[in-house]
Design a protein that fits this description.
Layout lengths: L8 H9 L1 H10 L5 H15 L4 H6 L2 H9 L8 H19 L5 H4 L5 H9 L6 H14 L7 H4 L18 H20 L1
Helix pairs in contact: 1-2, 1-3, 2-3, 2-6, 5-6, 8-9
């Protein structure tokens, strides 16, 4: 299994191999292009030396903001997103022993349990948690019972709603078209 989200082989490899990097990418996926958000963990790793929950949780907050600001920026809102990443990493360290994958592997959880665990993370509301659960199920090998139902429409097979559905440049285009249509419909409402 290899993720193809960013169009950058090194960034996609990190997302594929490191569950925390994937969670951080999902956290960063707001108010920036998906590729930018999911390329963020590689920028952090290159600048900090690793994507490790303990390291990032204990990193000097002002220094982490500088890491996020360095060009090319990790996110267009470096201060708030650095703080969110740090909060996420603190929870991963405290509640999951630094192992992000434990959220979806510890205790052989079903889809609704993983959804609740994701929703409890800083920066993960219901929608972001459902999208991430769909990503786990569709592309990351999670097979917990009822994951499609727990992910809602994001779990639908053959859909092009979110990052969970991006497996190629063509599927990225379809996801972008869906998002544009949803924004246009919201503006028209």
């Amino acid at each position: 299994m290899t993720l193809h989200i960013t169009g950058d082989d090194a960034a996609d490899r990190l997302l594929t191999e490191d569950p925390l990097a994937l969670l951080i990418g999902m956290l960063l996926d707001q108010q920036v292009a998906m590729e930018t958000a999911f390329a963020g963990p590689l920028k952090i790793a290159e600048r900090v030396g690793s994507v490790d929950a303990a390291t990032l949780a204990s990193y000097d907050p002002e220094s982490l903001v500088e890491v996020f600001k360095k060009s090319p920026a990790v996110h267009r809102f470096p201060g708030s997103m650095a703080a969110r990443v740090q909060s996420l990493c603190a929870v991963i360290e405290q509640d999951w022993g630094g192992n992000a994958a434990a959220i979806w592997t510890q205790g052989d959880p079903d889809g609704s349990t993983v959804l609740k665990r994701l929703e409890a993370l800083p920066g993960f509301g219901e929608q972001k948690a459902k999208i991430f659960l769909a990503l786990l199920g569709k592309q990351y090998g999670f097979t917990g019972g009822g994951w499609r139902e727990a992910a809602g429409a994001y779990g639908d097979e053959g859909s092009f709603r979110s990052v969970a559905d991006i497996v190629s440049p063509e599927s990225l285009t379809k996801v972008r078209e869906h998002k544009r249509a949803m924004k246009a419909a919201a503006r028209g409402a």
